[in-house]
Amino acid sequence: MRYLKINTKKHKYLPAITIKNNILYVDLLCYCSFFTKSMLLSLEKLNIELEGELYFQENNPKHQTILVAYSTDASVYQEKPLAVAIPHTKSDLLKLIAYANANLVTLIPRTAGTSLAGQVVGKGIVVDVSKFFNQILEVNEKEQWARVQPGVIRDDLNAYLKNFGLMFGPETSTANRAMVGGMIGNNSSGLHSIVWGDTRENLLEAYVLLNDGAEVIFKELNPQEYFAKLAQKDREGEIYRQLNDIITNKENIEIINSGYPKKDITRRNTGYALDYLVDTNQPFNLCNLLAGSEGTIGIVTEAKIQLRPLPPKEIGLLCVHFADMVECMHGNVVALSHNPEASELVDKYILDFTVGHPTYQYNRFFIQGDPQALLIIEFRADSEEEIIRLADALKQDLISKGLGYAYPLVLGATQSNLVWDVRKAGLGLIRNLPGDEQPVNLIEDCAVSPSDLPAYVADVQQLLKDEGVHASYYAHAGAGELHIEPFVNLKSPEGRRQFRSILEKTTDLVLKYNGSLSGEHGDGRLRGEFIGKVLGEKVYALLQDVKNIFDPKGIFNANKIVNTPPMDTSLRYDKVVDGKEIKTYFDFTKDESILRLAEKCSGSGDCRKTEISGGTMCPSFMATRNEKDTTRARANMLRQFLTNSTKQNRFDHEEIKEVMDLCLSCKGCKTECPSSVDVAKMKAEFLQHYYDANGAPFRSKVIANFTKSQQLGSLVAPLYNFFSQNKFTSGIIKQFVGFAPYRSLPEVSGTTLKQWLKKQNTPTSKRKVYLFCDEFTDYNDTSIGQTAYKLLTALGYEVLLAPHKESGRTYLSKGFVKAAKKLANTNVSMLKDKISAETPLLGVEPSAIITFRDEYLTLVDADLKLDAQKIAANTFMVDEFLAQEIDKGHIHAEQFSAEKQHIKLHGHCYQKAFHLVGYTEKVLSLPSNYTVEVIPSGCCGMAGSFGYEKEHYEISMKVAELVLLPAVRSANADTIIAAAGTSCRHQIKDGAARKSYHPVEILYNALIK
Ligand SMILES: Cc1cc2nc3c(=O)[nH]c(=O)nc-3n(C[C@H](O)[C@H](O)[C@H](O)COP(=O)(O)OP(=O)(O)OC[C@H]3O[C@@H](n4cnc5c(N)ncnc54)[C@H](O)[C@@H]3O)c2cc1C
Ligand code: SF4
Ligand code: SF4
User: Fold this and answer.
1) Ligand 3 pocket check for 618: Cβ under 6 Å
2) Rg (CA), the chain
3) In Å, what is the CA distance from 836 to each residue of 642, 830, 867?
4) pLDDT-wise least confident of 11-20, 73-82, 332-341, 691-700
5) How many beta carbons lie within 10 A of that of residue 967, not counting itself?
6) Do 640 and 72 form a contact (C-beta atoms < 8 A)?
7) By alpha-carbon position, which residue is closest to atom 2 of ligand 3?
8) In 401-492, which residue ranges form alpha helices assigned H by DSSP?
9) Is the link from the previous residue into 618 a cis peptide, with omega within 30 of 0?
10) What separation in Å is there between the alpha carbon of 320 and the centre of ligand 3?
11) More confident residue, 487 or 430
12) Would the pLDDT of 255 be above 70?
């Protein structure tokens, strides 16, 4: 989309025109609509020429899925691109540039897509270089630099550089997914920027493809080299000459120097960095302009970046508590005088959202009382004593000035990371705000001198009060930049008015303090409209000249920084739907509605982290590295279809099915997504509606009815096992059902666990527990159930058999929510009078037992809700229960063997989602000489039936190969592999040919009988 910006009064009769603030925006593509057909034909041709992928076809659900997935970033904007390209090679990039020139289409370079100002949202061809341009090319340890491709993730790079004792300094809160290309584009920096600098400061050289396809190197030039560039006869020489005309003009130098922010403001990302180019105190390097140019002047194919030694090993965070925000800003000025590594703000809103949060409630250990603001001040040193000394000096200084009320000092990397994680998750956490008033990125990137912060914050508070708007304040106080997120309802006309008005008024404050409109997040399409006001219209005209010099046809990320569309157009929420009117089988009241739950996705991209930074979310993305396979893509797809569908059944869309296909329903997102976007639950809900409209596939029915087939099988166990284990007949079964030929089928047991338990002569005891005979343990892993019984009985518990049906897990995993709902009602009705704190319900299979603690709560009928909650509160994994019994002093190490044993433990995804792995680790560590190593694995990849399904087998194994299987293979023969999940044990057996054991088996073996 090209926008022509013409100052005018009125042009209301022209089509495809928007008039905002006396500016006329002409959508030229509208006039070119008759080109659309020929454009599609030419895209077909381009598709054939590219080695990589191109998605653009109108009636192709797969293509449309990808176009929708790329229609947003982490900003409030949304626009479906014309096409999405995933180039494989540099030659692909050149073909794309040639195509863009020939067809006047803009290319939008993109890496992780975590931009907050709409930098990677637009109607051009999104060029995603994250997947195939991700190599670390060279590390020069001695000279401390590295050469990398743009798709290298900052934290993954630093994990690699650790071996050299080096690191790349600039960091964002998104550092576990943000990539070097995007960091250059936005000139990113982060919480240590006062010491480690921003990307511009650390960018030595860059290989850049210009608009004619020439690849040039931007680097520091001495005067001789500079003049040689000016003399070049090619496109590069032309660019240098035209730029030289701008930056050597006396009047230009004057307006640039007076228009740009105060010199002591290090966060200065507004517009192009002409202030650096006119600064004759530093050598000329076009990298200074490239950093922060947001993909608008060329495509970076390689960067040489400055590295720095790792910081001193000891870390301490002085977490100063304040009763008032402005007081906190005064505290920040004092803190800076003590030369910390970082000084960061977290406000009460963010802290409040950590209360009861599935992950962040565990990070609150250092909070005292109810602070309005918290300043986290980091010190680094070679010894803990030195840290304590530095922190104490600051504490005394603050106390002497009457600033702050509590000063806990958090020491060591592990605890400090927990504190920093809260700060980094700030934006995601405030996204949990109920209702349509939501935090918006708007004035979150303005920076002033730290000494101006107290007055600036007071002014902003007044401004927002006048607008009747609340806001959250957090982030880089030390660098003078606060992320101030006003809570605005962008679905309402009043909210959209506030959206514009707040930014407009804040620009007056930016001018008042000679600050920077954008500090680190860039201008994108959000702030461009106001650059002229802040830097001066003449400077703005120079910025337009810069864009024209590099890109006269607008083939590189047009309409970002300059010539931007109105900041309140192409918003995500142009159409408003009341989510509560969408009928669902699960009860989404807690999330307001399924639509609201999907809308909670802020686009932060935490679901793009890799196995190197760890965690579970999102295994399908970790395996494929496709944006389509992120939690974010799934949430956005649902949001868009639930909002825009014109069908009676809004779920009935192939595109949603396409994007959900590789979701393993692992629940990783339920906990790890800062906004708790629970896609596993939304996927099950979607599937049921999709089946309602289209019927369910045969294989899904077979899997959902697994219990019935196992029940029948167990009646004729020898015969069933003969057919299921025999290579020939099992091959036929697998082919018939649609399972992967390489998978082994589970055996059934002739005597089910229930039958066996009924025959036991259980000794009575005061300590009674109910054992849940889930469908997998009852029919297949019967011996594990028997061992659990023996272990509990030997430890003095009376094990009772509770009356119940199957858990419903197999139905839930395939989206038969109606059937699961019936089972949930039945089980809760049968168990409600039996399960209590004195008589808890225990199970051995996480996927089944956790159903009571998760899905049942929102599945059962209203009259059973309280009963379901009571049962959930008293339902445990056996190992979790035993860990609690250890704490109560009911179980002792002396009851177990003193032999040496090492165990490698893999946690089931649901155990991870409910923070239960620690209990298993504790229980297995009880025998005095047992050592437990938790494998830092995510999902095992099997995920119930997912790994069985023939089209998913390969992805399933890829997921397993990320961490789990290599860790199992590297274990020596004496090491025991522990895994509580039946799927996980199956995956380990199929993938590493190794037997693994349920924790209860290991404990029972260790028990002195
Ligand atoms: C929750 C949250 C917290 C954040 N915290 C911070 C923070 O602390 N500090 C900070 O600075 N930012 C922060 N950001 C913003 C964002 O994460 C950073 O700007 C990040 O560096 C962008 O990286 P990316 O890989 O996502 O880039 P993208 O969003 O994909 O792209 C960024 C820009 O770079 C351009 N680009 C990408 N690749 C190329 C290429 N090969 N050639 C030319 N141009 C290219 C794009 O066109 C775009 O203009 C935050 C964002 C979120 C959502
Ligand atoms: S799903 Fe969650 S983690 Fe992923 S982008 Fe959305 S909010 Fe962020
Ligand atoms: S449930 Fe698992 S696979 Fe599905 S979106 Fe969430 S993290 Fe990804």
Assistant:
1) yes
2) 30
3) 40, 13, 10
4) 11-20
5) 18
6) no
7) 666
8) 413-424, 426-430, 453-467
9) yes
10) 37
11) 487
12) yes
668 lines ligand 3 (CB under 6 A): yes
CA of 113 to the centre of ligand 1 (A): 6
Q: Which ligand neighbours the alpha carbon of 636 most closely?
A: 2
Report CA 854 to chain centroid distance, whole Å.
22
**Terminal Cα-to-Cα distance of the chain (whole angstroms):** 76
Answer whether 0.85 is exceeded by the pTM: yes
Which atom of ligand 1 is the closest one to the Cα of 115? 29
**Closest atom of ligand 2 to CA, residue 600:** 7
Catalogue the E-assigned strands of 326-458: 342-347, 373-381, 409-411, 438-439
From the CB of 909, is ligand 3 less than 6 Å away?
Answer: no
C-alpha 607 to ligand 3 mean position (Å): 9
User: Residues 475, 483: contact at Cβ < 8 Å?
Assistant: yes
Cβ(620) – ligand 3 distance below 6 Å: yes
Amino acid symbol at 210: L
Atom number of ligand 1 nearest to Cα 74:
53
Determine whether the shortest distance from the Cβ of 623 to ligand 3 is under 6 A.
no
Which ligand is located closest to the Cα atom of residue 635? 2
- Counting from 1 in the atom list of ligand 2, the atom nearest the Cα of 676 is 2
Q: Which of 848, 789, 850, 793 is nearest to 1001 (CA)?
A: 789
Cβ–Cβ under 8 Å, residues 184 and 519: no
Quick check: 908 pLDDT over 80? yes
Flag whether pLDDT at 12 surpasses 50.
no
Q: pLDDT of 570-629, one tens digit each? A: 999 878 899 999 999 999 999 999 999 999 999 999 999 999 989 999 999 999 999 999
Summary mean pLDDT of the chain: 94
Say how far apart CA 296 and CA 110 lie, in whole Å.
Answer: 11
Residue 985: C-alpha distances to residues 195, 786, 798, 980 (Å): 47, 17, 28, 8
Ligand 1 atom 6, closest CA: 172
User: Six-digit token pair at 246?
Assistant: 């701008």
Q: Is the pLDDT of residue 516 over 50?
A: yes
- Residues in CB range of 959: below 8 A, 6 or more apart: 619, 620, 622, 623, 664, 938, 939, 940, 941
How far does the centroid of ligand 3 lie from the alpha carbon of residue 683, in Å? 9
Tell me, in angstroms, the distance from the centre of ligand 3 to residue 356's CA.
21
**Identity of the residue numbered 11:** H
pLDDT band, very low/low/confident/very high, at 31 (cuts 50, 70, 90): very low
Per-residue pLDDT at 14: 39
pLDDT value, residue 425: 84
Three-state SS at 588: coil
Q: Long-range contact list for 66-69, CB < 8 A, 24+ apart?
A: 66/627, 66/628, 68/633, 68/636, 68/637, 68/640, 68/655, 68/659, 69/627, 69/628, 69/630, 69/632, 69/633, 69/636, 69/637, 69/659
Tell me the residue type at 717: A
Considering every ligand atom, which ligand is closest to the CA of 682? 3
| Sheet order of strands, 107-110 included | 53-55, 83-86, 125-128, 107-110
Contact 159, 310 (CB under 8 A): no
Two tokens, residue 225: 């080299």
**Is the four-CA dihedral 216, 222, 226, 229 of positive or negative sign?**
negative
- Taking the C-alpha atoms of residue 254 and residue 264, their distance in angstroms, rounded to an integer, is 18
Torsion angle (degrees, nearest 10) of CA 873, 876, 881, 883: -100
In three-state secondary structure terms, 120 is coil
Looking at residue 18, what is its pLDDT? 52
Output the CA 108–ligand 3 centroid distance in Å: 28
Query: Which pLDDT band holds residue 34 (cuts at 50, 70, 90)?
Result: very low
Distance in Å, CA 115 to ligand 3 centroid: 22
Q: For ligand 1, is residue 674 a contact (CB within 6 Å)?
A: no
